[in-house]
């Protein structure tokens, strides 16, 4: 349930960034606002992906029976 809440929180952040960037672009016509929104989405996505890989790394069973190096 906590993972679902975290996912929902991330989706809300992504939606807010997209909404602000889109509305800013529509109101001003400045293309840079849309680009900044894309950078914001990329940063949020990178952080979430890195966190997911770190969590998955801890749960992977090693097939070399402890003889491999991390």
Please name the defining characteristics of this protein.
single chain, 70 residues, mainly alpha, 79% helix, 0% strand
Q: What do these coordinates show?
A:
The protein is mostly helical. The chain has a domain of 36 residues. It is built from 2 helices and no strands. Helix 1 packs antiparallel against helix 2. The model has no long low-confidence stretch (mean pLDDT 84).
What can be said about the biggest beta sheet?
A: none
User: Roughly what is the average pLDDT, rounded to an integer?
Assistant: 84
Give the low-confidence spans.
Answer: none
DSSP E strands, number: 0
- Helix percent reads over 70%
Strand content range: under 5%
- What Rg is obtained from the alpha carbons, in whole angstroms? 18 Å
Number of helices: 2
Q: In one word, what is the shape?
A: elongated
Question: Which H/E pattern describes the elements?
Answer: HH
Whole-Å distance between the termini?
Answer: 31 Å
Structural class computed from helices and strand pairing: mainly alpha
């Amino acid at each position: 349930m906590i993972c679902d809440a975290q996912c929902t929180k991330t989706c809300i952040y992504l939606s807010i960034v997209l909404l602000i960037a889109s509305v800013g672009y529509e109101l001003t016509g400045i293309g840079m606002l849309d680009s900044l929104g894309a950078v914001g989405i990329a940063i949020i996505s990178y952080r979430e992906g890195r966190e997911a890989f770190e969590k998955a790394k801890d749960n992977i069973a090693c097939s070399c029976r402890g003889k491999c190096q991390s």
